[in-house]
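Lecture notes, unit on binding sites. The following record was shown on slide 14. It pairs a sequence with iron/sulfur cluster.
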Amino acid sequence: MRIKIAKTAGFCFGVKRAVDLVYSITKENIPVYTYGDIIHNENVVSDLAARGVTVINSAGELNDKPSGVVIIRSHGVPRKVIEELEATGNRIEDATCPFVKKIHKYASDYSKDPRVQIVITGSPDHDEVVGIKGWCHSEPVVIETVEQAENLDVPKDKKLVILSQTTFNENKFKLIVDILSKIGYDSIVLNTICNATHERQAEAESLSRECDAMIVIGGKKSSNTQKLYDICIKNCVDTYYIQTLVDLDPSRFGSFRCVGITAGASTPNNIIEEVRTGMAEKSFDELLEESFKTIHNGEVVEGTVIAVKPDEIILNIGYKSEGIITRQEYSNNPVDLTTVVNVGDTMEAKVLKMNDGEGQVLLTYKRLAAEKGNKKLEEAFENHTVLKAPVSQVLNGGLSVVVEEARVFIPASLVSDTFERNLDKYQGQEIEFVITEFNPRRRRIIGDRKQLLVAQKAEQKKELFDKIKVGDVVEGTVKNVTDFGAFIDLGGADGLLHISEMSWGHIENPKKVFKVGDRVKCFIKEINGEKIALSLKFQDENPWMDAETKFAVGTIVTGKVARMTDFGAFIELEPGVDALLHVSQIAKEHVDKPSDVLKTGEEVTAKVVDINAESRKISLSIKALLAPEESGEETESEDGEKSE
Ligand code: SF4
């Protein structure tokens, strides 16, 4: 294998100048700050951090820090940032690349003219562009794409001064200038693309055409490295973007005759050298062995994603042909493959067919995943492990859940501990279950959710009975309402709130008072085995407590006829307190039965003639309200004679 390193790979003039400056200032033994990462390279930034260099992102961060030197990186910053930093009293070392400084000057000078519109070609969010914008006296326009150039919304009488981010693609810049000219703009074109960038990109272009594989080294945040990668991948499909040697698997390069290496402007030479050495260190035996690499149907291979489309993934599997995974062989569910894998990802797959007719190796991901899923299910079956997975399909007789592409069927009878007429609500829901039958050959992998729910409820029930005792106030949810009472779910067991215990007063029908789902606070009246009787008749609300005072003999009371018998009518004086109006006490005339003269619900006024609070009995009389002569009873006159 021949390894060719691009002459232009690595630090450019501006970056080298900035990095050298930081390293030299670290020797001064004073606090050193860089405004942002000095370069887009994690290794260099962490090495400087180890030497005590602190990265700041605003002047305000210096307020609580000791005074020292602030270094401005090669990308440059807006004028305002320099002013803010100067105001902090720290020493400022401006390492802005002289080429970038020149752009700042153009931006500042030209933008003073109101007839001029500054146009910058570049990425609007890139720090260098943000810096350039910050030197303009009027709002500049940033163009990143050809479409933006075609739709430029600037009056035609303005003169455009076109500048560029130093790392912008040369061809795209020319295209944009051309478009603006065709639209009819009068422009001053200042091609500020840095030669270093241009040369590096041109060399990457030619090297990637001539080599079988390319390695592009640079930080993941470095835009100029990304551009080098974009150029190389167009010419050479086996292009790898790495940060250091660690990201590289040299065994993948066994079948290539020539490998090219280039690197972004922020990549230190030692990293480039390390990659070169790492590539060259492969022994002849290893290379020979790799060149004879063979694979077979059914074999599991690992590969790196080199291209991905919505319906197929292309993998470099280190074999003379590439591997392909179609959408059907990725998953049982239709999925856009660009949303699940990225170029550069590594993944395992199984060889389905050595040649798919177009010289590619047909791979399957879903079958390998299903095998792994089956293995997991088998272990879960043996160990009685609880699994959790989403319901992928609601079937006629139950639910289908998928565990790593392996299907489990949960029959309707094992879905819940209660009968479920409609299973639709489970669609997409994550549920827990255990495997009770595992026979993949007969395609019988059966899950059971019911036994988990039953066990869970038994546990809850035990906890509940361990906790509660007669007299405790508990809160629960109404689960069912019948004519004789309501069943309250106390979390583990149900308690019965009988109609007679719902109120001190009279309840006609529980359904008029409670509905399913209501929360109820009541107390435990009795526990008999697993039966819990509940009550809402709290003692402190007992209306009989002060009845002897409220309804003392002689008190005139008003109440409603609650019910009637042949011997009298029961008058509700207040909820829970009924008094008897005997038939003989209704009127002075003879009344045969109460319903002849009273109606249920009718309001009556009577006198209390007797009370026994202990046995909860009160006797009333209407007759006693009448004057003695009206009541028809004998009274004694002052002279001792009786009258009627
Ligand atoms: S790429 Fe060019 S402009 Fe940018 S820092 Fe390097 S030398 Fe300066």
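Take-home: The chain has a mean pLDDT of 88.
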